[in-house]
Amino acid sequence: MKGETRMYEVRFHGRGGQGAVTAAHTLSDAAFRESKDVQSFPMFGVERRGAPVAAFARIDEKEIDIKTQIYEPDMVIVLDMSLLDVVDVTDGLKEGGKIILNTAKAPSEFDFGDAEVYTVNATKIAVDNGLGTETNPIVNTAILGAYSRVAGNVKLKNIKKAIENNVPVKHDENKKAAEQAYESVVGV
Amino acid sequence: MGEQKGLTIQGNMATALGAKLSRPDVIPAYPITPSTLFPEKISEYIADGELDASMIRVESEHSAMSACIGASASGARACTASASQGIALMHEMLFIAAGMRLPIVMAVGNRALSAPINIWADHQDSISSRDSGWLQFYAEKNQEGLDLMILAFRIAEDERVLLPAMVGIDGFVLTHTVEGVKAPAQEDVDDFLPPYEPPHGKLDPEEPMTFGSLGTPEYYQELKYDQTQAMENTPEIIDEIFDEFEERFGREYNRITPYKCEDADIILLTMGSMSGTARAAVDEMREEGEKVGLAKLTVFRPFPGDLLKEIAGDADGLAVVDRNISPGFGGAVFAESAGTFINENRSPLMKNFIVGLGGREIFKRNFKEMYEKTKEAVEAGEVKKPVEWINMDEDVMR
Lengths: 188, 398
Prior knowledge:
The structure holds 2 protein chains of 2 kinds.
Chain A: E1 8-15, H1 20-32, E2 37-42, E3 52-60, E4 75-78, E5 98-102, E6 116-120, H2 122-128, H3 140-151, H4 156-166, H5 171-184
Parallel strand pairs in A: 1-4, 4-5, 5-6
Antiparallel strand pairs in A: 1-3, 2-3
Helix pairs in contact in A: 1-3, 1-4, 2-3, 3-5, 4-5
Chain B: E1 5-10, H1 11-21, E2 26-29, H2 37-47, E3 54-57, H3 61-73, E4 79-82, H4 84-89, H5 91-99, E5 105-110, H6 124-127, E6 135-138, H7 142-157, E7 165-170, E8 178-183, H8 186-192, H9 220-232, H10 234-249, E9 256-259, E10 266-271, H11 274-287, E11 292-297, E12 299-301, H12 305-312, E13 317-322, H13 332-340, E14 349-354, H14 364-380, E15 387-389, H15 394-397
Helix pairs in contact in B: 1-2, 1-7, 3-5, 11-14
């Protein structure tokens, strides 16, 4: 993505309470620090803990005029693999778009047509850093490290600054998780 | 001039920040989606010692506006936030606030009215209080929400105005969407907006006074005339204060902002967040050679007919886009626009498009469709169907 000036749209899939919305807001904060124009928003409406949720971020070098929700993302990020059975995470994904999955498996184990698949074990990274538990890991900061590496349009240092600003606790642990995911994401 | 701080915040946080920078004294509020985050943020500011104000936790929106009226009449700068049914419930008190000439400011998270229950973006709530005597501002983006709050206090409290004002940001599309904003420095807002001093007396036990008393037939009509005159005198004052704001803070505001209108055959007239998508659509259509422009309405009350005539008077067609509906006629902006041109020798042909009700998306392609339909009417020289609903789902209609 480096050097590209067109609008970049991201969709996060998670479950209510997993921090998908915070991830989207943190990403837009990080991109704003690079003088980009940004928007991020939840799925408009009601949210229940545990239910599938989506959150969105839109990044552009130019001022963003458009106010519609995101239907054809450039990238999809899946925080919780159990969602693959209930949600079509590739819905609307642009041709040749990117998918980041939170899993220990390799990208080659997945087939999403012409989409580029990347994997990162964000759950292990989160738990290792004391962010949530095995059954309820808080993976949203780790996944942003992977985003920075894969998308290449927002620097890791700004992701870390945005984490300090948007995540209420454990700043060092969350920043470390982002760093480890940046280093370990597979498929790059 | 202090530095303006860059922040990424949701629309509700932007209007709450605009309110905080305006140093309100009293904030009575009752939570309602999608404006709830406003009172939440204000109570956080107070708890953190960043804002020295009294927050009154009232039992309803009717009480919220009643408390605003009492506070404002006693000389306090009063502010609240609401949406939808909340604004409907305070309807009675809105007229009283305006009739008593109290410069209360309300942040609105614009949302549909029931039934059916719907919490999403729609202008019906504030549009339905059009005749209450409040100034009405609508934001396209969070930056405008923040700035318009500060501007609303300054305009409302101007001795030549003394009318309440509401600032609308579209539910979810702005209230819950994070965007980058620049926040003016406190000292600069303090300079721009001095403390409120009621020029004609206030409620004070030391000097008792009656407000909002009986206005018998001998007086009522004159008082309403006076209030209406105050509203009709505001355009000049709004322009003057918008200009001063631009000088100080570097951001331009207009009652209506034209975009690529100068040589446009057809102009889209929009209000609220949809204006952004409409501008993107205009850019694309311009690339295809279409002579189309956009007029963005920021001030709905008083209605800027003078500017609309300047901007659209020479156009062939005006597509008026309403996110509200008055059953039995059409959209409110359409009615006002049609009224604006009624005695003009030349007027654009006008079409009205009802869009985005209850959070229905408004796509670029929808604006292109509105343009095409207006162009067809212009080419035919007549408007067969003045009001059309756009982006309808045929499956739901069946």
